[in-house]
């Protein structure tokens, strides 16, 4: 069961995440889920490995893909022209710019991120995106995913990519998702989840927190949080192959985690990429 930390502890976690991802945003050698990793910016290898199509990756503004994905929520969401999409923890704008092409000129995509450096990177790329597409349909707002700067019942779709696990108050995040969705709106999230509790040594690593692992919860705990906010038609799909692919390309951060595991164990025995689908009821 999720135990919500004190407000002081929550802010301490957020500060660690801000510092870690602020550093990633300012570094030319960014990560696959942490600051010391396998993929450089715009390399696209990790994105292709987890299901992003070449046509979606082609022409992305420089620096938008920083290798921070653990799934493809845009594809999961099957976006339609004219929809309003909110991306939680939008980073450099990777999924926002891809989603913007899919919702078209009549749609809107709003990225929310609490890290000023990430927000600046994303906003700097809007002009390139607009020139390439002819659309003026994306924006980025500073805010925490536990307190979204989004109006009630205003989003057709909420997406998020490897971010909710970082929150120190995940039930509140799911409550916010339910609040901003229109009746009948849907959520499509890619996140990191646990198949079993992590060894204490890994859970204690700051790198594990910024690297999208230490804050992850068990799959059934995610299900309980989604149910608790009243969302329906819930589907949870575990994709263990993501973690194995990261290990196979010798990501330094994952190799560090591997060294802390019990003898003979693999990180994918503990961690998976989880696709979460749900819908808000029509009242």
Write the layout of secondary structure elements.
Layout: H1 7-26, H2 45-49, H3 54-57, H4 73-77, E1 84-88, H5 94-103, E2 108-113, H6 116-124, H7 126-133, E3 138-142, E4 155-161, H8 170-180, E5 181-194, H9 200-203, H10 206-210, H11 219-228, E6 232-239, H12 241-248, H13 252-259, E7 271-279
Parallel strand pairs: 1-2, 1-4, 2-3, 4-5
Antiparallel strand pairs: 5-7, 6-7
Helix pairs in contact: 1-6
Helix-strand pattern, N to C?
HHHHEHEHHEEHEHHHEHHE
Strand content: 15-25%
Widest sheet: strand order? Answer: 3-2-1-4-5-7-6
Number of helices: 13
CATH topology: Rossmann fold
Number of structurally distinct domains: 1
Question: What are its keywords?
Answer:
Rossmann fold, single chain, alpha/beta, 38% helix, 7 strands, 283 residues, 13 helices, globular, 7-stranded mixed sheet
Commentary on this structure:
Helix 1 crosses helix 6 (116-124). Helix 8 (170-180) links the parallel strand 4 (155-161) and strand 5. The protein has helices spanning 7-26, 45-49, 54-57, 73-77, 94-103, 116-124, 126-133, 170-180, 200-203, 206-210, 219-228, 241-248, 252-259; strands spanning 84-88, 108-113, 138-142, 155-161, 181-194, 232-239, 271-279. With 283 residues, it is of the alpha/beta class. It is globular. It is 38% helix and 19% strand. The protein has a single domain (71-279), classed as 3-Layer(aba) Sandwich (Rossmann fold). The chain has a 7-stranded mixed sheet with strand order 3-2-1-4-5-7-6, with helices on both faces.
């Amino acid at each position: 069961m999720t135990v919500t930390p004190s407000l002081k502890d929550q802010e301490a976690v957020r500060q660690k995440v801000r510092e870690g991802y602020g550093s990633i945003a300012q570094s030319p050698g960014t990560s696959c889920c942490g600051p010391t990793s396998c993929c450089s910016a715009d390399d696209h290898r990790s994105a292709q490995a987890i299901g992003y199509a070449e046509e979606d990756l082609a022409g992305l503004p420089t620096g938008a893909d920083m290798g921070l994905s653990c799934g493809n929520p845009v594809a999961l969401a099957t976006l339609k022209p004219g929809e309003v999409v909110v991306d939680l923890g939008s980073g450099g704008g990777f999924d926002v710019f891809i989603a913007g092409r899919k919702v078209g000129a009549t749609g809107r995509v709003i990225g929310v991120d609490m890290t000023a450096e990430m927000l600046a990177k994303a906003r700097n790329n809007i002009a390139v995106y607009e020139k390439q597409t002819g659309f003026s349909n994306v924006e980025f707002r500073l805010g925490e995913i536990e307190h979204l700067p989004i109006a009630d019942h205003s989003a057709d779709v909420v997406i998020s990519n490897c971010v909710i696990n970082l929150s120190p108050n995940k039930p509140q995040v799911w409550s916010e998702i339910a609040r901003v969705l229109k009746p009948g709106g849907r959520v499509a999230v890619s996140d990191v989840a646990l198949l079993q509790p992590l060894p204490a040594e890994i859970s204690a690593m700051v790198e594990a927190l910024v690297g999208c692992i230490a804050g992850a919860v068990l799959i059934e705990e995610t299900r309980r949080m989604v149910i608790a906010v009243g969302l329906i038609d819930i589907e949870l799909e575990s994709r263990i192959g993501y973690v194995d692919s990261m290990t196979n390309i010798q990501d330094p951060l994952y190799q560090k985690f591997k060294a802390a595991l019990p003898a003979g164990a693999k990180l994918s025995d503990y961690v998976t990429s989880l696709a979460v689908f749900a819908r808000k009821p029509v009242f």
